[in-house]
Amino acid sequence: MEAEKQDTPTSDDPYRWGDYIHPVRITVWTWKICGLYNGKPQTTRYRLYRAVFNIFLMVVYLFTLSLNVFVMQTFEQLVLYIMYIVFTEIVMALKAIVTYYKFDQLCDLYRQTLGSDFQPLDAEEEQLHRKGVAKEEQLHRKGVASINHYLYPYLVTTNLAVASSCLYLLQDDYRLPYFPWILGIEYGPTKRLNYGLLFAYQVIGMYLHMLINVAIDVQLSYLLGMISIQLDLIGKRFRSLHTSEQFGVSFVGLMNHHGKVQRMTAEIEQLFSAAYFAQFGSSGLVICASAFKTSSMFNLYELTAIQNLLYMLSMIFQMFLPCRFGNEVTRKSHLLRTSIYSSRWYEMGLQERKTLRMLLQRMNKPLTLKAFYFFNYNLQAFTTVH
C-alpha cells in the first residue's frame, strides 16, 4: 500500500487520501461527485451542488423509477423490473445513507489502516503486507496485491455493465435503457431530442448510482482485506517468539494489536450490517432475474442481452467480494491458533506456557462477520445464495 509511516495528516490533505491504494481513491472521488462527501469544512458551493444532485439524480430519478411499476404491460415485465432494477436501487440508497451519515466513522476506520500499529516492522512483514507470497503458497496472491487483484476487475465489469446500455442506440425502436415512462414526457421518432435527453439522463443517473453502489463495496473489501493482513502480521509475530524474554517483551503489544483488530471487525460489522443484509437478501433474486432475462433474449439480433449478461456478472462480483474478504478474516483468525502453537512455547517458562494455553482456548472462536446476525460473510454464504 502506498502509505507513509507517520500518523500525522498534512494541512492540505487532512484525511491523507493520497496514501491509499487507487480503488480507495476512486471511492473518494465518487463521494465527492455524488454529493456524499461529508468531510469538514465544506464550501457553500459544494453544499449547493449536493442539493441539486440529490434532487435530480436521487429523488426525481428514484421516484420516477418507482412509478414505472404501475405502467408495466405484463406480469412478467413487472416481476423482472422489480427484481432487476428496484432491489438494486434500494441497496444503493442504503449504502448512500451509510456513507453520508457515517462518514466520520468510515474515515476513522480508514485512518486506522494507516496507523503505526498497522505497519510492517521488517522485510518479511513488508512482503506479507504488500504481496503476501509465502514459499508454501506461491500460487496465491495475498496482502494489498490481493485487494487490487479483486477490486480492479469489479470496477471494470460494473463500468462495462452501465456502458452497455448504449447498445439500445443501435436499435431503431427508441427504447429507453432502464425504465419506459418518465413523468409523461413524449419521446420517439418524432421527438428525437426528448429521446436523446431522457436517454442521457437515465444512463448518467444509473452510472452515478452504480458508482455509489460500487464505492461502498470497495470500502468494505479494503477494510476487510487490511484486517486479514493484520492477522497475518500478528501470526508471524507469534511464530517468532522463541524465549520467555521475547514473550515478556512482545505479548502485551500483540494482545493490544489483536484487540484493535477485533474492535475494528465488530465496528465494520455494525456499520455495514443493514446494507449488506438487504444486498444478501435480494441478490439471489436479482441474479436469477438477470439470468432469465439474458437467456430469453440472447440472439444475434438482441444486442441488449450483453447488457443483462454484464449486469449479472457485476451482481455476482458484488456478492462475491464481501464473502471472499470476510472469509479470509475468519480463516486467518482461526489460523492464529496454529501460529501461536508454532512458537517455541516448549522452550519458555511455566507461566508463559500457561498464558499461551489460555490464549489458545480464548481463540477457539474465530472472528466472523454477519449481516443482521443472519448472513455470514463467507464463501459458504456466497455459494448458498447462488
Ordered list of secondary-structure elements with their pairings:
Blueprint: H1 22-33, H2 44-67, H3 75-101, H4 103-114, H5 123-130, H6 143-163, H7 192-239, H8 244-297, H9 305-341, H10 350-362, E1 370-371, E2 375-376, H11 379-385
Antiparallel strand pairs: 1-2
How does this structure look, described?
Interacts with Orco. Complexes exist early in the endomembrane system in olfactory sensory neurons (OSNs), coupling these complexes to the conserved ciliary trafficking pathway. Belongs to the insect chemoreceptor superfamily. Heteromeric odorant receptor channel (TC 1.A.69) family. Or2a subfamily. It is found in: Membrane. One of its GO terms (cellular component) is plasma membrane. The protein has a two-stranded antiparallel sheet with strand order 1-2. The chain has eleven helices and two strands. It is mainly alpha-helical and 386 residues long. The longest helix has 54 residues, at 244-297.
